[in-house]
Amino acid sequence: METQRKRPLEGIRVVEMGQLLAGPFTGAMLGYFGAEVIKIEPPEGGDALRGWRLMDNGTSYWWHSIARNKKSVTIDLKSDSGRQLARKLIDKADVLVENFRPGLMEKWGLGPDALKQSNPGLIYTRISGYGQDGPYASKPGFASVCEGFGGFRHVNGFQGQAPVRPNLSIGDTLAALHAALGVAMAIIERSNNRKGEGQVIDVALYEAVFNLMEGVVPEYSGCGAIREPSGTTVTGIVPTNTYRCADGKYVIIGGNGDSIFKRLMSAAGRDDMANNPAMADNAGRVKHEMEIDQALTDWCAGLESRQVIAKLEEARVPVGPIYNVEDMFNDPHYQARGMFESVEIDGKPLEIPAFIPKLKSTPGKTEWSGPKLGQHTHAVLQEVAGLDDKEISALAAKGVI
């Protein structure tokens, strides 16, 4: 009988410091794949995300997802005693994740150089708006601002209109994904270097956004082209667009492959375009973009979205609907792929999203939802920091925990 394989990060201890999204999303990813994540929160109120957006019984639904699998420990980092206590935990950790403004951890005596003395193997993961150095390092760096600075907002929207923000904190999530990847690589590197030394990971929100800019940089460097917003299309690739159907719903059609284009236009009743040599490759289709888009706009307008999707799927053309979250819940593919996981909150089930990537032999999992504030303080201080009941009670009496 095959022994159950451990999740890839089991045995790795992470101390998570900071609030809201980028740092906590990183911790959630690491915890999902097996790491022990100790989240340090201020005793008064905890992480601000506990009170953001829609709530049930005073705690946001969001919290139950972003803080899953974490141990909540309350420590007042503004006090000397609190910082000394945090150091005890960090000294027993493999990874530290922090997303404070640059310089604050050094001010607290918890910077990388100080911690390296007592924990040389520590992987010190830092997330900030503009990075730890450079002329803008000290600027406040919220995701909304960094999405603009990183180039994303400029290409998102319609020509001549204000750039559009998706109703998400994309900059935070992108930074967290890069941070989690950095941690995984640093763990591998640490196991390969003879001294077992850790290193500092420096993730800037704007750079995580910048990392998605595809060919924007070489196009500008090569020929001075500045990519502009293009609404529902992608500049220089035709056809790929969003079309309104007779039922008022939209479909996305990606017909920009040469053979796919022929099948698409034939399915749309436009064999003249399907077999037009002037549209046989992408360069030609770009020249005829308006004509092609108008033909597809007219065709979709005469059919319901389900009919468009059925016809194009039969023709093996990439096509799909635009889903809201209710559509996702009702879709059998989402359900079959296990994209929702259920946790119990005060006796009631709550669905939260699964994390990817999917690892076939050692998959991640949600063990518990976001904990109550300070739920694990006593146990962690005993087991990790080595404090006894008397010492813990004294810290509580002083308001440190």
Please outline the helices and strands:
Blueprint: E1 13-17, H1 22-32, E2 36-41, E3 55-56, E4 59-60, H2 61-66, E5 70-74, H3 80-90, E6 95-98, H4 104-107, H5 112-118, E7 123-128, H6 143-149, H7 152-155, H8 170-192, E8 200-204, H9 205-210, H10 216-223, E9 240-244, E10 250-254, H11 258-267, H12 271-274, H13 282-287, H14 289-301, H15 305-314, E11 319-321, H16 325-330, H17 332-336, E12 340-345, E13 348-353, H18 377-383, H19 389-397
Parallel strand pairs: 1-2, 1-6, 2-5, 6-7, 7-8
Antiparallel strand pairs: 3-4, 9-10, 10-11, 12-13
Briefly characterize the structure.
With 401 residues, this protein is α/β, with parallel strands linked by helices.
| Strand order across the largest sheet | 5-2-1-6-7-8
Structural class: alpha/beta
Overall domain count: 2
What number is the mean pLDDT?
96
Write down the CATH class of the largest domain.
Alpha Beta
Helix content: 25-40%
Count of individual beta strands: 13
Beta-strand content: 5-15%
CATH topology of the largest domain: Rossmann fold
Biggest sheet overview: 6 strands, parallel
Shape, per Cα inertia axes: elongated
Radius of gyration: 25 Å
CATH homology superfamily name of the largest domain: Crotonobetainyl-coa:carnitine coa-transferase, domain 1
* Unreliable segments of 5+ consecutive residues: none
The termini sit apart by: 46 Å
